[in-house]
C-alpha cells in the first residue's frame, strides 16, 4: 500500500526535494567489489546498507538520480502484509508458509522504525496507526479476518464496528474497519535520503547516472559494463523495477508497469477535522482510495491506476471527484499538486526476492508494498550472502512469470477497470441496502407503536368491563333527567 506518489519537487508540508540532494559522481573508473547492486531505490539501498554493514564492499549503480522513480514518490505507509488477499496467499502456499511470510513484513516494519528516528533522519515525521475500511458491510467476515490476522498470523489488530469507523471518518461510504495500531507513516522522501546516507556511512559507494549496459555472468567474478567503466563483483543484485531494461530483460519482462496517481490538496483549514479525525493512513479494502492528512490541514490522496503513462494533471479531476464523493462536506477541494510514478507489479502479486542463479540475486516487483518489504528483502539477501540465511527461500514459490508485454498491459487495464467499477457498484448497493434497512426499521417501529396503542386500548376496555365502570371516552349510561316544565 505504500509505493504511492508524494511529490515530484517539494513534498507536502515542506518535505525535502530531490533537487536539494547533491548528485553523486558517475562511475568513470574500473572497480572491483564484493557486491554490485543495480538500482538505487528503496530495495537497492536497503540491500546496500545491510551488505555494507555486514562488511562487504558494495557499489550501487543507478541509471538516473536516486529516488526519481516510485521509490522517491511513495505515500510513506508502513504496514504488514502484501498486496495479495490473505485467502489467496494461504491457498497458494498453506497457512504456516503464509504466516511465515507475513512475519517477515512485521520484521521489515521494525527495521524501518528503528532506522527512521529523528536523530538519523531529521524531519521523517512518524505518525502511528493505519485503518483498513470496507466499502461494504462485511459482517461475519470481519471476525474471520481478525482471527487469521491476530491468531494465525500474530499481527496486532483491532476490529472496528461501523459506528466507531464513522466516528473518525464522517462518511456513509465505509462500514467495518480493521485498525493496525503498530503500523505507521513517515515522510517517504526523507526516509529514502536517510537510507542513502546510512548506506554511504556504512561504506557503500553509490554512482548516479551510471546505467549497467550489459552483464557477463560467466565465471566467479561477474563483469558489469557501464558507459564509461567496467565493474567486477562476486555477486550482483538486480534491484531495479520496470526500468531495469538491458541488465536483465528477463526480470524486466515479468513486471507490469502501473502508474498510480496521487494529489496533494490545498490547505483545507478547520473543515478537515470535521470530516477526518484519524491521524494515520486510510485505505479501503478494494484498493480504490488511499489517503492521509499531511501538514495538519491537507489531504494526500491516491486513487486511480493505469498501465499506460498518463500525465497526472489529466487525472486530477478523478481524485477531486473521489474526495467529494467520500467526504461531500469538504466540497470541491482545490488540488495543489498531482504526482505519478510507475511501480512494477508481478502477475502473482508478490515480490520477487532471492537467488536466480549462483551469484545473481533479485529484489524486485514490490508494487505498492515498498517500505516494509524492501527493508526485509535487503536483510534477507545480505544475510544470505554473509550468514547463509536461507529465509529468502520463503519467496521461492513466486517465480518469474512473464507479464504479457503490451497485451498484458491492455488486459491489466481492463481488469483494473472491471475491479474498480465492481467495487464501486458493490459499495453503492451496500449503502442502498443500509438505507432500505433503516427505512424498514422506522416503519417497523411505527407499526409497533401503533400495535402497542391498540393493545393498551383493548386492555383498558377489558379492565373497565371487568370493573363494571365505563371505559375512558365511553358514552355515559346514567339516566337522563326529564325536561323541566319551563
Automatic annotation (TrEMBL):
It comes from the Bacteria. This is FAD-binding oxidoreductase. Keywords: Coiled coil, Oxidoreductase. It holds the Pfam family DAO. InterPro entries: FAD-dep_OxRdtase, FAD/NAD-bd_sf. It comes from Rhodopseudomonas palustris (strain ATCC BAA-98 / CGA009). Residues 34-382 form the FAD dependent oxidoreductase domain. Residues 469-486 have a biased composition (Pro residues). One of its GO terms (molecular function) is oxidoreductase activity. Residues 463-486 are annotated as: Disordered. Residues 435-462 form a coiled coil. One of its GO terms (cellular component) is cytoplasm.
Amino acid at each position: 500500500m505504500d509505493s504511492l506518489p508524494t511529490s515530484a519537487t517539494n513534498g507536502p508540508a515542506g518535505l525535502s526535494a530531490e533537487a536539494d540532494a547533491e548528485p553523486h559522481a558517475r562511475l568513470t573508473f574500473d572497480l572491483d567489489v564484493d557486491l554490485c547492486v543495480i538500482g538505487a531505490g528503496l530495495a537497492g539501498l536497503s540491500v546496500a546498507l545491510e551488505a555494507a554493514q555486514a562488511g562487504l564492499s558494495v557499489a550501487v549503480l543507478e541509471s538516473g538520480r536516486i529516488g526519481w522513480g516510485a521509490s522517491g514518490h511513495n505515500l510513506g505507509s508502513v504496514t504488514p502484509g502484501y498486496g495479495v488477499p490473505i485467502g489467496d496467499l494461504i491457498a497458494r502456499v498453506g497457512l504456516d508458509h503464509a504466516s511465515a511470510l507475513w512475519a517477515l513484513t512485521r520484521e521489515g516494519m521494525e527495521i524501518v522504525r528503528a532506522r527512521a528516528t529523528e536523530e538519523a533522519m531529521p524531519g521523517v515525521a512518524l505518525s502511528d496507526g493505519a485503518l483498513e475500511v470496507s466499502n461494504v458491510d462485511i459482517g461475519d467476515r470481519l471476525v474471520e479476518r481478525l482471527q487469521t490476522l491476530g491468531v494465525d498470523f500474530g499481527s496486532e489488530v483491532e476490529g472496528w464496528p461501523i459506528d466507531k469507523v464513522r466516528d473518525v471518518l464522517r462518511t456513509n461510504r465505509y462500514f467495518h474497519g480493521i485498525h493496525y495500531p503498530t503500523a505507521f507513516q513517515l515522510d517517504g522522501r526523507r526516509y529514502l535520503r536517510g537510507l542513502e546516507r546510512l548506506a554511504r556511512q556504512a561504506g557503500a559507494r553509490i554512482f548516479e547516472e551510471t546505467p549497467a549496459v550489459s552483464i557477463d555472468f560467466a565465471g566467479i567474478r561477474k563483469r558489469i559494463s557501464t558507459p564509461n567503466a567496467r565493474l567486477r563483483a562476486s555477486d550482483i543484485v538486480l534491484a531495479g523495477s520496470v526500468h531495469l531494461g538491458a541488465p536483465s530483460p528477463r526480470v524486466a519482462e515479468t513486471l507490469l508497469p502501473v502508474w498510480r496517481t496521487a494529489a496533494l490538496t490545498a490547505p483545507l483549514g478547520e473543515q478537515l477535522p470535521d470530516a477526518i479525525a484519524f491521524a494515520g493512513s486510510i485505505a479501503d479494502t478494494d484498493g480504490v482510495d488511499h489517503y492521509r492528512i499531511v501538514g495538519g490541514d491537507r489531504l494526500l490522496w491516491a486513487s486511480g491506476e493505469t498501465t499506460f503513462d498518463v500525465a497526472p494533471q489529466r487525472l486530477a479531476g478523478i481524485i477531486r471527484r473521489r474526495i467529494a464523493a467520500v467526504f461531500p462536506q469538504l466540497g470541491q477541494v482545490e488540488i495543489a499538486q498531482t504526482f505519478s510514478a510507475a511501480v512494477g507489479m508481478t502477475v502473482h502479486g508478490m515480490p520477487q526476492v532471492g537467488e536466480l542463479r549462483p551469484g545473481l540475486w533479485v529484489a524486485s516487483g514490490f508494487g505498492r508494498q515498498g517500505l516494509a518489504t524492501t527493508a526485509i528483502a535487503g536483510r534477507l539477501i545480505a544475510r544470505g550472502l554473509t550468514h547463509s540465511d536461507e529465509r529468502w527461500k520463503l519467496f521461492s514459490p513466486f517465480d518469474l512469470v512473464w507479464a504479457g508485454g503490451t497485451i498484458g498491459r491492455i488486459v491489466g487495464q481492463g481488469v483494473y477497470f472491471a475491479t474498480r467499477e465492481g467495487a464501486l457498484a458493490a459499495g453503492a448497493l451496500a449503502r442502498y441496502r443500509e438505507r432500505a434497512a433503516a427505512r424498514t426499521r422506522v416503519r417497523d417501529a411505527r407499526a409497533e407503536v401503533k400495535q402497542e396503542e391498540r393493545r393498551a386500548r383493548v386492555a383498558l376496555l377489558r379492565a373497565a368491563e371487568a370493573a363494571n365502570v365505563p371505559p375512558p371516552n365511553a358514552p355515559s349510561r346514567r339516566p337522563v333527567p326529564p325536561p323541566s316544565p319551563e
